[in-house]
């Protein structure tokens, strides 16, 4: 620490947060505003005295909501330390006490008092009935809570936590708080809901009876007539998809890196496909090909004179669709791993008398183990979480994600059954997550040591070469056919019945009426959901990137107690299927203190925490490329850690930032599993609109809309590639052929 | 256990007009011929990009020669891949397999050489004992220090009793003190077992210390082959003189040649030295800093010079001296009566000091 910073008695950051706290208390409306804060209608609707719009201070002045009164004191206390030095023990003590008390009280009153007065019976028993109530918190509460939190972090930083670095302490605490609120809290709420009885109590017996329901775990398909439980269905599908996508992904990765294949670049373009394709679109294409009136079905029926069947609906169709959709993801993971195996490892094995096949089996393949495990995990989780394909193609083969949906929105409206199903789903994905870590054990697989490493990867052994080539070619051709079907299907009148070409689907969806000159009217039926999607995705993308990169920075560059738990917590949402997020958000954010259902905010928030792990990974990957001496030299030159982050790390991370931005933008546009629970009439998203069309058998419109989305996202990815291509840092080429 | 000792099957290596071209026209090795005798340690030395690593990788079979013939022993191995050559290599990055224990690493090659399990184990153990790591067999490479990893890599290569053992800059990842120790160990093992070793380095001191023969390479071809002493005392040309140790390269003219003795003139200083077959006319000499003599004053034999810079480095004095023919660098053992800056001195050569070289 430099002396200058410890001795001064003005604390600009502290002053900022004190002022912010008072703004939250005195100026901003305390409760959430139903019509939306940013319409500013509340400014003219009786503000600041109307109790719906009033700031906390005005409520108190009118003698309302008196339980908010204790919040004022912790905001006065920090004035006492303004003239003190950071090294003064009182400085830290007062800030810690004020921040902690204020924050705790804010939380306690929020949970304690809800729409119907006291939220818990024992509170009523102690304090007597309360004839007052409150709604979800608004921006006033949000700003005040932030103020308390950061007063607290400045207190513990002054006591020396994490080298007394205010920025790092605040960032760590901030991430912990938002992850707790938006990941752990909803999950906990969902767990609780699984124990709920019909009359509002909680009971373990109810949970057990629901958990061991035959519809979930039944084995009738093995030991008797009937169907198996949805849990088995999901598990079988996910394991198959995990294995097959990993195997196929490896095949592609080997062809792309270890062979003299001529169209490697085209192969790499495959990796873009899953990013820009809404997952259920593949399912639609499968129907166009193999459905009851599909082209292949019709052709085969004509050829052999058999009656078309619905064989594709169920496990076979789901398997094909999911493998098509998720193989590129496995490829994306494995190509980095296959390239990452240090060539000198393989060369060393060669000089140690292993032949090509032995090198592959004993060195290359084991070194790819983490990648294989990762690819399997991704395939497994994606399959478990996939919602669109089972909805479109599932037939009688019920899986967890769709069951959860029907439990919530269907006629049953059984929240606790949805919660139980979601817990089963979550248990599977977390189990896979743990199994992966267990399997990898504590062996180190780092092969790129940064030490001199000249060499070239050997080519594939001949015995492997032919099957790998055949599979890759066949699969690539199939993928091309699928996408051609999608494009073609969007301009066909009625698939399999009336094959004449038409643009009518596009017109229905995207027509614009130029009724009067200069006045456009978005008359197409898809415009509403289209613009909502663009808007939500545009808001969510920068927030996702920011949260992800700051977390990555903390994980790669800082050391603090509990870092492993911190890492686990931030990566956890990666293993939580979107369906589970959707259910838990509904259960958690439908009631005060945080009331978000039906708003656009809940969609934005769900995207941030769904896609954050990707931002974290991208950030970690590129930050570990940056030498730590860069930060250290910046710090020794007198910059603090925030300035270092902003002026040194961020500029060097431009490619990672752009990647995170576009990725989260595109994911927000293609996501369906969480979204389907969270959309409302006002905030309808493109994907849920399309699914709605599919359910009405309006395939033409659905496919036309999907095609449009694919092209919009292709454009977004293209813009990214252009932008990233120009921000390369000058660097020596990695291939040096040695002395 | 007599059969688990490590023996030597040392063989010679011959390059006959070997050329390696990368892509269409990047010449990495250009028409190189050389012979490495069995049981010797030969160093390939040169600046980066001179083709020494490519030469080594061609012996290993990791690169294939574009033209020419490579023999190991009497066998033509030009087209054999690495797997089928009886050669093993210690990599610059060590290339220890991170997913295998030390024991598994060392017995890896034995597994593919037809030994049964217990025999592989015995041999691997013997190899580990030889490098002093017998107690570390069950560790993972990531649990070893850099020096220990290096020794595991050596043991892994040694236990195969290869005809030729290759080292690709094996010491470049070690610190200076360890470097000296490890290179002595490598030399000791090589001499005790009578191995044929080919060793790539760009550090001339390392090369001088360990080699029987040094091959100095420049621009994809061989500049000179010789024992360390030959290279140091009688370099062929200015490149070799400059690359091996420090040398002052001074332009001069040969005034007179009588038999094997030439007389040169250097700003009036006449000096006789072996002519090495050169005729009268312009030439240059190379002289090591330690073979320059300095005497105070302006008189006596030699050239007039002036001390420009004097550096005390403990065991000796280093001087930069300005002369009519440019600056020279001298090292003097006398540290007790040093010259001062600006002193006028008489500069002359030791007997057997300078070597005559072609002028360019």
Structural commentary:
With about 750 residues, chain A is mostly helical. Chain A folds into three domains: about 160 residues, no CATH class; about 270 residues, MetI-like (MetI-like fold), CATH 1.10.3720.10; about 160 residues, MetI-like (MetI-like fold, Orthogonal Bundle), CATH 1.10.3720.10. Helix content of chain A is about 65%, strand content about 0%. Chain A has 35 helices and six strands. Chain A has a two-stranded antiparallel sheet with strand order 1-2. In chain A, strands 3-4 form a two-stranded antiparallel sheet. In chain A, strand 5 and strand 6 form a beta hairpin. Chain A is globular, with a radius of gyration of 28 Å. The two termini of chain A are about 45 Å apart. The N terminus and C terminus of chain A are likely disordered. By secondary structure, chain B is an alpha+beta fold. Chain B folds into two domains: about 240 residues, Rossmann fold (3-Layer(aba) Sandwich), CATH 3.40.50.300; about 110 residues, OB fold (Dihydrolipoamide Acetyltransferase, E2P) (Beta Barrel), CATH 2.40.50. Chain B is built from eight helices and 20 strands. In chain B, strands 6-7-8-3-9-10 form a six-stranded mixed β-sheet, with helices on both faces. In chain B, a hairpin with a 2-residue loop joins strand 17 and strand 18. In chain B, helix 2 crosses helix 3, helix 2 runs parallel beside helix 4 and helix 3 crosses helix 4. Chain B is elongated and about 80 Å long. The termini of chain B are far apart. The chains are: A mainly alpha (about 750), B alpha+beta (about 350). The interface between A and B is large, with 34 and 47 residues.
């Amino acid at each position: 620490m430099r002396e200058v910073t410890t001795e001064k008695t003005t604390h600009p950051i502290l002053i900022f947060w004190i002022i912010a706290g008072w703004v939250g208390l005195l100026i901003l409306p305390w409760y959430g505003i139903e019509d939306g804060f940013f319409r500013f209608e509340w400014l003219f609707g009786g503000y600041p005295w109307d109790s719906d719009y009033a700031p906390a201070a005005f409520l108190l002045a009118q003698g309302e909501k008196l339980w908010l009164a204790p919040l004022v004191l912790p905001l006065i206390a920090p004035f006492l330390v303004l003239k003190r030095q950071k090294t003064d023990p009182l400085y830290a003590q007062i800030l810690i006490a004020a921040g902690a008390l204020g924050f705790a009280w804010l939380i306690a009153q929020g949970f304690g008092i809800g729409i119907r007065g006291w939220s818990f019976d024992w509170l009523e028993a102690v304090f007597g009935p309360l004839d007052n109530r409150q709604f979800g918190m608004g921006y006033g509460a949000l700003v005040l809570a932030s103020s308390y939190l950061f007063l607290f972090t400045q207190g513990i930083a002054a006591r020396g936590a994490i080298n007394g670095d205010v920025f790092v302490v605040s960032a760590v605490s901030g991430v912990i708080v938002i992850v707790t609120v938006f990941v752990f809290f909803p999950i906990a709420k969902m767990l609780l809901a699984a124990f709920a009885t019909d009359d509002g109590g909680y009971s373990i017996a109810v949970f057990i009876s629901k958990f061991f329901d035959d519809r979930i775990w039944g084995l009738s398909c093995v030991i008797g007539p009937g169907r198996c439980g949805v849990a088995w269905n999901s598990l079988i599908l996910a394991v198959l998809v995990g294995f097959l996508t990993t195997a196929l992904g490896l095949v592609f990765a080997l062809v792309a890196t270890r062979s003299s294949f001529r169209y490697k670049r085209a192969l790499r373009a495959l990796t873009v496909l899953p990013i820009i394709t809404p997952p259920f679109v593949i399912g639609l294409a499968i129907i166009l090909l193999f459905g009851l009136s599909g082209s292949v079905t019709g052709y085969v029926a004509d050829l052999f004179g058999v009656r078309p069947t619905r064989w594709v609906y169920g496990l076979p169709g789901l398997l094909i669709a999911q493998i098509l959709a998720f193989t590129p993801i496995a490829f994306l993971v494995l190509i980095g791993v296959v390239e990452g195996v240090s060539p000198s490892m393989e060369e060393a094995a060669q000089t140690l008398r292993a032949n090509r096949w032995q090198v592959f089996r004993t060195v290359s393949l084991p070194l790819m183990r983490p990648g294989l495990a990762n690819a399997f995990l991704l395939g497994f989780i994606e399959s478990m979480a996939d919602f669109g394909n089972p909805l479109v193609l599932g037939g009688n083969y019920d899986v967890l994600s769709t069951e959860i949906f029907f439990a919530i929105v269907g006629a049953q409206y059984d929240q606790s059954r949805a919660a139980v199903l979601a817990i089963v789903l979550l248990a599977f994905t977390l189990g896979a997550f743990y199994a992966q870590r267990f399997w990898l054990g504590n062996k180190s697989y780092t092969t790129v040591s940064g030490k001199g490493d000249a060499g070239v990867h050997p080519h594939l052994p001949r015995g492997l070469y032919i099957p790998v080539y055949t599979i890759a070619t066949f699969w690539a051709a199939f993928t091309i056919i699928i996408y051609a079907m999608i494009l073609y299907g969007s301009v066909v009148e009625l698939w399999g019945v009336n094959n004449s070409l038409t643009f009518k689907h596009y017109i229905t969806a995207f027509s614009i009426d130029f009724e009067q000159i200069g006045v456009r009217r978005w008359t197409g039926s898809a415009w509403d959901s289209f613009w909502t999607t663009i808007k939500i995705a545009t808001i969510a993308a920068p927030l996702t990137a920011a949260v992800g990169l700051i977390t990555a920075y903390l994980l790669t560059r800082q050391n603090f107690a509990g870092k492993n738990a911190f890492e686990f917590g931030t990566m956890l949402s990666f293993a939580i299927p979107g369906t589970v997020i959707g259910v838990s958000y509904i259960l958690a954010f439908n009631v005060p203190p945080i009331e978000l259902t039906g708003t656009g905010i809940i969609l934005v928030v769900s995207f941030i925490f769904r896609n954050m792990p990707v931002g974290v990974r991208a950030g970690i990957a590129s930050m570990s490329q940056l030498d730590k001496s860069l930060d250290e030299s910046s710090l020794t030159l007198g910059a603090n850690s925030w300035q270092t982050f902003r002026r040194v790390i961020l500029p060097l991370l431009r490619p990672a930032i752009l990647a995170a931005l576009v990725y989260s933008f595109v994911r927000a546009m293609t996501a369906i599993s969480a979204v389907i629970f969270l959309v409302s009439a006002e905030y309808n998203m493109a994907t849920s609109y399309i699914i709605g069309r599919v359910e009405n058998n309006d395939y033409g419109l659905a496919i036309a809309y999907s095609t449009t989305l694919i092209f919009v996202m292709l454009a977004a990815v293209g813009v990214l590639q252009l932008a990233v291509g120009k921000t390369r840092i000058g660097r020596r080429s990695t291939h040096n052929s040695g002395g | 256990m007599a059969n688990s000792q490590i023996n030597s099957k040392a063989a010679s290596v011959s390059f006959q007009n070997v050329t390696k071209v990368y892509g269409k026209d990047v010449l990495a090795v250009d028409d190189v011929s050389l012979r490495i005798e069995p049981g010797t340690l030969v160093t390939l030395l040169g600046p980066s990009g001179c083709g020494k690593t490519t030469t080594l990788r061609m012996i290993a079979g990791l690169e294939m020669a574009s033209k020419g013939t490579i023999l190991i022993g009497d066998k033509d191995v030009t087209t054999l891949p690495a797997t089928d050559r009886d050669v093993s290599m210690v990599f610059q990055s060590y290339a220890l397999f991170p997913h295998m224990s030390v024991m598994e690493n060392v017995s890896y090659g034995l597994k593919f050489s037809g030994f049964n399990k217990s025999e592989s184990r015995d041999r691997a153990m013997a190899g580990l004992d030889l490098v002093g790591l017998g107690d570390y067999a069950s560790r993972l490479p990531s649990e070893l220090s850099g020096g220990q990893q290096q020794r595991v890599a050596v043991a892994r290569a040694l236990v195969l009793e290869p005809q030729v053992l290759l080292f690709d800059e094996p010491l470049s990842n070690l610190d200076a003190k360890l470097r000296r120790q490890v290179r002595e160990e490598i030399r000791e093992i090589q001499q005790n077992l009578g191995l044929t070793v080919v060793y790539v380095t760009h550090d001339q001191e390392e090369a001088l210390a360990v080699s029987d023969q040094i091959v100095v390479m420049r621009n994809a071809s061989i500049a000179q082959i010789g024992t360390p002493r030959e290279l140091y005392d009688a370099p062929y040309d200015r490149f070799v003189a400059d690359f091996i140790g420090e040398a002052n390269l001074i332009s001069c003219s040969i005034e007179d040649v009588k038999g094997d003795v030439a007389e040169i003139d250097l700003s009036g200083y006449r000096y006789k030295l072996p002519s090495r077959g050169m005729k009268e006319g312009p030439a240059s000499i190379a002289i090591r800093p330690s073979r320059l003599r300095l005497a105070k004053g302006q008189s006596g034999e030699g050239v007039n010079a002036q001390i420009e810079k004097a550096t005390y480095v403990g065991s000796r004095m280093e001087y930069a001296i300005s002369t009519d023919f440019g600056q020279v660098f001298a090292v003097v053992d006398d540290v007790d009566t040093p010259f001062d800056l600006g002193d006028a001195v008489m500069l002359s050569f030791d007997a057997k000091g300078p070597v005559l070289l072609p002028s360019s």
